[in-house]
Amino acid sequence: MNLWHTNKSLRHSVKQIALISTFASATFASVANEGVVFSGQVKTVTPTVTIEADDGAVAHVKDFSLSVIQDALECELYTEVWQTQNSFAEDEKPRCLFEWTGSVNGLTVDSLALEGILNTADTAGFEYQVSILDQGQKRVIVTDTYELPVGSPEISNIVDIVANWSNEQEAGLTQENYDKNNRLTSAFVEVEPRPFTQVVTFRGANCTVEAEQNGCTVTFDSLRPGEGAPESFGSLVEQITATDEKNYLELQTRNFVIDYDYRSPEVVDFVVNGVGEMAPIDYSVDDQDYVLQENKAMLVLRTPHYDKPGDWWFPEVEDIELIIDSTIATEYLVQIKGETYEYEVNSVLARSSYEINPSGEPTIINDKIVFFYDVSGIPDGRFTANIKASDKYNNTREVGIP
Q1: Among 384, 320, 323, which residue's Cα sits nearest to residue 350?
Q2: Which end of the chain is more exposed for a tag (fewer CB within 10 A), N or C?
């Protein structure tokens, strides 16, 4: 039995033995030529090894470390044989040799610590032993195995995205954009929490999701779908990826789709019954019949967005400008003293344009919107109607109808 004694002046005849003794009762007497004799009980204490490890160990994807705690031992631990050639030096705490004797499960040995990435899941065992060396003899006093549970990593799962646009915030992996000036500046990518760090990549930028968190925000160069080209429409697909920071697991990917549409309201027709004493005009819009009386007009617009939520798509029409055709001259016949004279007055001498605005409420017929006008205040002549229609996102179309 290996013992450590509290009295360092006492020596064993064969090898030095350290004793941590509890004497329940002890008596001694001086005997000539025989030295000191003790009687009583001796209690031996085996060195206790305490190991501390990081919480939440996960194989392959997470940094991990464990270390032996010196303060929990009855001897000073060393990992090199030369440091413990004499375990019982005078006036020092006993020296013990600590050795990892089995697999370190992918970790790197750093003296009394192990660091790195575990390559074993479920349960990892770390075998070790503690020895003393006395006068060249090595004696193992502790042999044990430290075991800890190790989780198996699960691949990332991208749940959703919250896009930060220049004028709003919107959630969803498929989004629509009708504002050609709207820019995507950043996005919060939501993932399922994992007990290890995840890395999310979107549009060439990335962010880090810490262990047990549910997402992170990626910031990148602003994006304007379709480059904001007027009348353009289509779909833009951007890929989102997520995996562990060690790139061990299979890369998880999801598509972020932006359907953009900057088409403006379209002018279908502008009908005027404005020439004096004209008969009513019959006109039909998608099987809806109208009768256009004298000095009345109607404007028919089409919108590709009539079935979208909200009213942002409803056309806003500026006052229609009626521009007099300056190339047309008005001919007049005048009789003077029985003679008839013909002369022309060029319209450039008259007022150059007039404006009319809608009267009454417009009518919605499927994808068509019909506006009504009164042109009784407009003189006879030939005009070009300048019509400008837009939606609330300022998708605008301007046409001239002779």
Answers
A1: 323
A2: N
Closest among 145, 154, 96, 95 to 121, alpha carbons compared:
154
Q: Which of 84, 10, 3 is nearest to 46 (CA)?
A: 3
pTM over 0.70: yes
Count of CB atoms situated within 10 Å of the CB of 292:
18
Task: Looking at the structure, tell me whether residues 278 and 310 fall in a common domain.
Answer: yes
CA–CA gap between residue 280 and residue 294 (Å, rounded): 6
Cβ neighbours for 120, distance < 8 A, ≥ 6 positions apart: 59, 103, 105, 106, 150
What is the CB neighbour count within 10 angstroms for residue 9? 6
Same domain, 395 and 271: yes
* Structure confidence at residue 93 (pLDDT): 81
CA gap 172, 258 in Å, rounded: 10
pLDDT of res. 334: 61
pLDDT at res. 329: 57
Task: Report the distance separating Cα 24 and Cα 3, nearest Å.
Answer: 17
Question: From CA 182, how far away is CA 175, in angstroms rounded?
Answer: 13
> Do 284 and 340 have their domain in common?
yes
**What is the per-residue pLDDT across 74-103, written as a single tens digit (0 to 9) for each?**
788 999 988 888 777 766 788 899 999 999
Structure-block tokens of residue 289 = 């019949």
Domain count, the chain: 4
